Amino acid sequence: MSQEAVQDYYPGDIAVCYGCGKSNRHGHQIKTYWEGDETVSRFQPQPYHTAFPGYVYGGLIASLIDCHGTGTAASANFRDTGMLPSSESLERYVTVSLHVDYVAPTPINFVLELRGRVKESKEHKMVISVTVSADGKETARGEVVALKMPENFLSKK
Amino acid sequence: MSQEAVQDYYPGDIAVCYGCGKSNRHGHQIKTYWEGDETVSRFQPQPYHTAFPGYVYGGLIASLIDCHGTGTAASANFRDTGMLPSSESLERYVTVSLHVDYVAPTPINFVLELRGRVKESKEHKMVISVTVSADGKETARGEVVALKMPENFLSKK
User: What is the three-state SS of B98-126?
Assistant: First the structure.
C-alpha cells in the first residue's frame, strides 16, 4: 500500500470528489499514503487560493483535512482488517463532522503537508486527527469524524 | 446595508479571498446580506463541485460556512457599533476555528442557502452559527469562531 494512494482504489465512475477524486479533472486530486503510523498528503496551493495576499484561504485547508481524513479512515480500514487493497474490497467513509483550528496563517508558496492519525476506531466509525504544515511549521489542526458508507448509500440518497 | 453585501466594503486590493473576495476572479465571491436578524448568502455549486455523483463535496460547504461566518461577524460589528458601512470603517474578522456537522447529503442542482446568526459577541470575538439548506432542506450546520483582525495583521504575518 505504501506506493499507491488509497484514492487510487476509489472506483473511477464515482471518484468524482473535488477534493480527492481521480476522475474530477477540476479538483485537487489529493493522494493519501502511509508513512509509518501516519498518513501523509501533500498539496501545492494555486496562486488564487488566497485568503489575504500571500496566505491560503481556510476553506481549502478545511477541504484538504476533510479528504485526507476520509482517505486515512479507508486506509486504516484496509490495514486493520488485513484486506488486500483493491477497488472491490474498498470500504469508503463519509464525513459526518469536521473541525478545524487555524493556529497560524498558512503561507501560499509552500507545499502543504497533511499528516493524519487514527484517534478512535469503532466498527463503523473512525475519528481522524490531521495536522497541516507549511515550510515545516504547523498552521492548522483538524479532526474528522467519518462513518463507513453503507453499501446502498448512493442509491438511497 | 440591506442592499449591499458586507463583502462589497472589503478593500479591493486585499479582497482576494477565494471564498468571498470580489477581486478573486477564480473564487466563489459569495455575498452576505441581512434578512431580519439573520444573514443570508446564496451560492450555486458548479457541476464539478461533487463529492459523489449528484452531491456537493463537503469542502465547499465548509468554505461557504467559513466565509459566511466571517462576513456575518463583520456585518454584525457594523450593526452593533452603529458605524456607517464603508471600506474605511470596516473591521475584518478572521476565523480561528470552524466546525461543520453534515446532517444530510447536499444535492448539487439547487442554489445553496446559508443563514447566519450571532451566537456570541464579545469585544474582539464573535461566534457565528450557520445553517446550509438546499431545496428547503437543511443539510449542514456550522459554527465559526472569528476574531477581529488586528490592524497590523497583514504586515505582521
Answer: EEEEECCCCECCCCEEEEEEEEEECCCEE
